[in-house]
Amino acid sequence: MTCPHCKNNGWFWKKIGRCKRCMDQLTVLSVLCWIVWWFLFKDDPKSIESITLIIAGFAFNGLLALHLWMRFVISPWRKRKKNNS
Q: I need a surface site. Which of 2, 10, 28, 57 has the fewest CB within 10 A?
């Protein structure tokens, strides 16, 4: 990755929520995953392909939600707390 936050070998929690490129990629992957599932595998939800896409979709959505939570809730809260101290 070309992002300076992602190239750094730091801890996971120091990286999450700082990289717009990662959030864009997760958004695209999530949307594509659910679109593919909807058009190709919704009729047979017990097939291995369908289950795999469902799990991948939830994983992408969960990681994206964590990125957004850190970027728009936790980081501003920490910054505001630091400025008030």
A: 2
